[in-house]
């Protein structure tokens, strides 16, 4: 088991803040996701929100008030939080601000013990790599907000990481959205080809912990089925008919060996995202579905394979997305307590962000060059 035992459903182990009281948490970015995480944090026993930062002071004050903090806890700059003494920070700003935010947090007199940064880590491979090396050099635990992973039971994650699914051959992802741009459409600052743009961080973020750790991908070819001409930020909606086929390769003595194909597409049916990983030669399946249809979003995980049944990890789990956020925050608070060296959280490690960004970047480059093989 990679997870730690918990005292109650939403209790963060026996984590303690610097002063021996609750773990003190700061939030940077009080938009949609910051607000969601602020609310989820109120359900984590042993943690207390102490600062909210947003250049829009009204947004910071709103989240502070909703979380029962005085308005003095709301700030417009990280640099103004030197008295907050936060042990842990959450970064929920747009991806192009994550690296700067993290560097600013490291300059606070009370250096954070752990940071949860929203996904995607950043838009460029260079920025993601810099984030991860800053964390490593400063000894700060850094984890990324791949909340979907929290829906996978720890025993299943361990089983996957140990190669339980066998040889992965085919991965398919579908973005189920009847209308509207992908959620992150409003962050677009560069050419991001259609469906891959939004699904990349979701799909690859989930897939890599399953696939990447034991069979690292080192080359891809990629074909975009629709035109690559996804417009820039101000250039209108993303094309809904876009889809992508990515062939992945791993290194073997004497050359490259196919390690699976990844297809990403839009679908006009339903809402949410769907990920299915199929295997050649076995009936094994790992499937994940985020249903945002109506009311609270629910994450469904299904694992089925002869080996999974034999190990007792086959099954279907449904977890409200809200509970996924809470679990992720519990992990963060526990990581702050245990220290970066002693604690490996279930789910998204900093290195996974580098690996998935590298893969997405290479896929874009390959598509740009008519499906040329891109290796690294
Ligand atoms: N909205 C979602 O459903 C969702 C889900 C998963 C992940 N995310 C991720 O969460 C992050 C935030 O997304 P969002 O949807 O909340 O965006 P948002 O636009 O609703 O909120 C972003 C907030 O950050 C503030 N901000 C911008 N630059 C800042 C800076 N330098 N310092 C402090 N605050 C700053 C903005 O004023 C705004 O209030 C992104 O990385 C996104 O990909 C969002």
From TrEMBL:
Keywords: Oxidoreductase
Chain coiled-coil ranges: none
Domain Gfo/Idh/MocA-like oxidoreductase N-terminal: residue ranges: 23-145
Domain of life from the UniProt record: Bacteria
Region entry Disordered, spans: 1-24
Molecular-function GO term, any one: oxidoreductase activity
Pfam families for this protein: GFO_IDH_MocA (PF01408)
InterPro entries in the cross-refs: Gfo/Idh/MocA-like_OxRdtase_N (IPR000683), Gfo/Idh/MocA_oxidrdct_glycsds (IPR050463), NAD(P)-bd_dom_sf (IPR036291)
Protein name per Swiss-Prot or TrEMBL: Gfo/Idh/MocA family oxidoreductase
Organism listed in the record: Amycolatopsis balhimycina DSM 5908
């Amino acid at each position: 088991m990679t997870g730690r035992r918990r005292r109650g459903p939403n209790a963060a182990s026996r984590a303690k803040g610097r002063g021996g009281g609750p773990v003190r948490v700061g939030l940077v970015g009080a938009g949609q996701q910051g607000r969601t995480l602020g609310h989820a944090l109120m359900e984590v026993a042993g943690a207390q929100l102490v600062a909210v930062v947003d250049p829009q002071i009204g947004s910071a004050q709103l989240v502070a008030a909703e979380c029962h903090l005085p308005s003095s806890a709301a700030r417009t700059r990280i640099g103004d939080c030197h008295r907050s003494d936060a042990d842990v920070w959450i970064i929920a700003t747009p991806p192009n601000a994550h690296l700067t935010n993290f560097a600013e947090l490291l300059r606070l007199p009370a250096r954070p013990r752990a940071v949860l940064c929203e996904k995607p880590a950043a838009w460029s491979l260079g920025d993601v790599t810099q984030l991860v090396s800053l964390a490593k050099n400063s000894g700060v635990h850094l984890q990324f907000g791949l909340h979907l992973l929290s829906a996978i039971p720890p025993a299943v994650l361990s089983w996957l990481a140990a190669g339980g699914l066998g040889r992965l051959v085919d991965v398919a992802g579908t973005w189920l959205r009847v209308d509207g741009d992908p959620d992150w459409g409003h962050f677009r600052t560069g050419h991001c080809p259609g469906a891959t743009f939004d699904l990349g961080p979701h799909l690859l973020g989930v897939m890599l912990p399953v696939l990447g750790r034991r069979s690292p991908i080192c080359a891809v070819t990629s074909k975009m089925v629709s035109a690559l001409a996804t417009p820039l930020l101000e250039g209108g909606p993303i094309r809904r008919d876009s889809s992508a086929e990515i062939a992945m390769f791993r290194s073997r003595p004497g050359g490259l060996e196919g390690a699976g194909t990844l297809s990403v597409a839009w679908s006009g049916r339903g809402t949410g995202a769907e990920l299915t990983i199929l295997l050649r030669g076995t009936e094994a399946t790992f499937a994940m579905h985020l249903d945002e249809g109506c009311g609270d979003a629910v994450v469904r995980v299904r694992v089925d394979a002869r080996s999974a049944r034999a190990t007792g990890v086959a099954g279907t789990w449904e977890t409200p997305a809200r509970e996924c956020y809470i679990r992720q925050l519990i992990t963060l608070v526990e990581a702050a307590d245990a220290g970066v060296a002693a604690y490996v959280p279930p789910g998204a490690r900093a290195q996974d962000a580098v690996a998935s960004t590298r893969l997405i970047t290479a896929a874009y480059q390959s598509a740009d060059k008519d499906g040329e093989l891109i290796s690294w």
